[in-house]
Every structure is written in C-alpha cells, then in structure tokens.
Amino acid sequence: MVAHVPGSCPARRSGAGERTDASGQFGGTGCARCGPPGWLTGICRPRHTYDVSVGTTIEVIAEPSRRRILDELRKGEQPVGALVECLELSQPTVSKHLRVLREAQLVEVRPEGQRRLYRVRPEALLDLDAWLEPYRAMWRHSLDRLEAQVGGSGRGGGRDG
Prior knowledge:
- The chain is mostly helical.
- The chain folds into 2 domains: about 1-50, no CATH class; about 55-125, Orthogonal Bundle (Arc Repressor Mutant, subunit A).
- The chain has 5 helices and 5 strands.
- The longest helix has about 30 residues, at about 125-155.
- It is elongated.
- It starts with a strand and ends with a helix.
- The model is unreliable at about 1-50 (pLDDT under 50).
C-alpha cells in the first residue's frame, strides 16, 4: 500500500475527480490506476500492483473461523450441521462464513435432498499459491545461506577455529 498524497497519482495531477470536504480533507473519487482512495486512513491501493483475487482470498482467510471451516472441509464434503458440531459455532455464524467463502469461490455447495454439502475448491487457492512462491524461494535461499554458514562454522572454518 502507498500513502495517498493528493495529486501524486499521474491520473490525478489534473485535479479531475478530486474534491474536498468542509475540513479541506481530500475525498477524491479515485482514478483508473489507484481506485478509490481510503479517505479515512489516507491510504490507497495501487491496483496495478495488487491482484484483486489474491487480495480477496487473503482477506477472506484472515478470519480464523473461516480457516477452521476450510480445514474441516479438507477432510471432504460436509453439511452445515456437521461443521456447526465440530467447530462449536452457531448455525447462523457458520452459514455466514460459508457464504463469504462461497462468494470468494473458496468453497462450493451442492444440494443433496434437504441438505447442502460444502467442499473446498482447491483451484481457487492456486492464485494465492503462485503469489506466495517468490516468498518461498526467498526463504529457501535464506535458509540455504544460513545452513552453509552454520555448516561452515561447524567444520572449524568459523572465526573461533
């Protein structure tokens, strides 16, 4: 995220779409690149560096109860009642979280008689996995360097030896 400074976005330099409230605070309507500014926080998200699908997935799974639901659904299709029982949450709460997960396309539902069975859509997590891969590579590289450093000092090649 980038701190928003009125006029800093090339698309906003003309002042088009910008307006201020009675206190003189920026309340612009946004631009094609930055989207609407976060007028309460003074922060905007540059969309050209922010993948909406990954961002949505991260926001959705940030909620611990939703992660617990996904963990349970990894075991296989389950009806709401089974999730309510194992998670010890109320039925309306589980249904609300399932709706959010469904809207984010992280789970899908299929009717079976009177019940609705939910299951994880692992393909929906592929974008997040791809986004995380460069960070995994960075950690692997850092751990390889640490291992080489620790391994080198263990053979008498360190400063003390």
